[in-house]
UniProtKB/TrEMBL annotation:
Family listed: Belongs to the methylmalonyl-CoA mutase family.
Organism for this UniProt entry: Rhodococcus antarcticus
Alphabetized Gene3D superfamilies for the sequence: Cobalamin-binding domain (3.40.50.280), Methylmalonyl-CoA mutase (3.20.20.240)
CDD domains found in the cross-reference section: MM_CoA_mut_B12_BD
Protein name: Protein meaA
Domain B12-binding: 539-668
Keyword Protease appears in the UniProt entry: no
Amino acid sequence: MPYPTDRERDRPWVMRTYAGHSSAAASNALFRRNLAKGQTGLSVAFDLPTQTGYDPDDELARGEVGKVGVPLTHLGDMRALFDQIPLAEANTSMTINAPAMWLLALYQVVAEEQAQASGLDRETVLATLAGTTQNDIIKEYLSRGTYVFPPGPSLRLITDMVAYSVTAIPRWNPINICSYHLQEAGATPVQEVSYALCTAIAVLDSVRDSGQVPPERFGDVVGRISFFVNAGLRFVEEMCKMRAFSQLWTELVAERYGVSDAKQARFRYGVQVNSLGLTEAQPENNVQRIVLEMLAVTLSRDARARAVQLPAWNEALGLPRPWDQQWALRMQQVLAFETDLLEYEDLFAGSHVVERAVADIVDGARAEIDRVQAMGGAVAAVETGYMKSALVSSLAERRRRMESGDDVVVGVNRFDGSEPSPLQAEGAGAIEVVDPAVEAAAVAAVQCWRAGRDPIRVEEALRALRDAAGTDANLVGASVVCARAGVTTGEWAGALREVFGEYRAPTGVSAASGGGDPGSEIARVRENVRVAGEQVGGRLRMLVGKPGLDGHSNGAEQIAVRARDCGFEVVYQGIRLTPAQIVSAAVQEGVHVVGLSVLSGSHMEVVPAVVEGLAAAGAGDVPVVVGGIIPPEDAAALLRRGVSRVFTPKDYSMTDIMDEIVTVVVNAHTP
């Protein structure tokens, strides 16, 4: 029987693909192609130097420029990125956190320039700007790792942006509270919901207490808070999680902030389905994974995402090509326009099973929120390491279940026999490869930009920014002045580093649980570690290093925990280290092996630098092993350049990895 046509059909969500690489000009061409294919919003991926506040010619940027996103260094780059894309008509999501204020300043100035060129009123254009800056710096200390400043100053930057946007850019979402990376870092549904809401409490309390927004406008602040969530393969549980999220948000803003207006209190969220859950083994299986994860956030009308972006099937192999991104976009379009999903009211209203599952998540999240608030809130729970340790422990347990076979991953720990994949027949051609010349071009371009500026105007703008940072003044205005003066990303962040200092977050490794009963395999490897230690003259010491700007530390942390469980003495100093710093630590600590983790694509630059640095320091006999998203051709090249072993996501058993590392150490000490 056909569904009655007098029912209101739900509008489709904003459809995005997360895109950007190489250069602003190349990314602009990609954006315009995607929009022509029916994409309805832009989601900008920035490279790691941009995300962490460095220019392309900084030492830490080596090997990272243009790899995981577009380098955005100054106003000229922002102009090129949105050339022929009217910002007054666009809906732009920018995945940027610590430098979010800076990117928003650049975006605003380009919008103003477009308005002037079109003869439009500046205020009218700013009033129409629609989009989101992720700007959830707090979760960066727990998961993604692109923080720059300590938690206090970071919260101040968020507060200033929220207060500024609610009046100057009223349709802009100044923060996208991001539980997405919390799930990747190990969060259970209860932890994902509770930690995200604790972040929301910290932000809203800070805005309220800053006095920058009149009390009568606070409902507008709440109405511009959005969330960015993850959707895993347990799609029934994920759907229930979103219903619980919505229920708790409505309660929170009414009870804590007195906001009951339905529009202002609505739980607004976008989603990227789980990228790190995609597999290198049998990557064609990722297609059905992505579709099932999309259903988790679209099936329930009462908890449906308002913006969706999907990863590509081959993201576990490397950077997707435009065709791969097109496939992900078509998945959304088929669901939205070919099926009858949007014609129905909520499919799960009245379901006792769903109501019970939602209630369990709500009850667990309330208890965890209370626990964090009793500690002093989200910032205090970051600084003490409580939340980070909880996530590392949860991820360790998740890994244990997968390695034991309790949780099945098709093509990885079960059903791993496979025919050759025609989708991978091209080898390295099956992914987008960034030309190494991109980095050299970006370095030359930023140096040319600096040479063409008015140096006095630049210094005055930076001095004003530093001076304002030392007061309680809102910093958005000073950042906009810097943007107009031609200041670079590294200079903006450098000026604030001078005032705020830098920060190294707790790793969570020392207090983390190893994830249940270690079992006989770990006991066997622990014995091998003990025997090898006797052979080399002491307990085996392993340095786990994260070279470059890659902040995805989940794998490194799990390796550190498993190495400790297997009897190694572990040296782990966290993220964002230069190869020289890793070499220095390895020599000072007298380690027997160095294990490097790289997921950003910079492995061909930073890994050989460590190998060569060890040799130059007289420690060339210390073997180096590497783990990460490394194509087979690159793995072979690294082995030729002195790396002892290369592990990729298909090597899912960390205990087996530890056993291989023991063999590497023994071989290195065998004449």
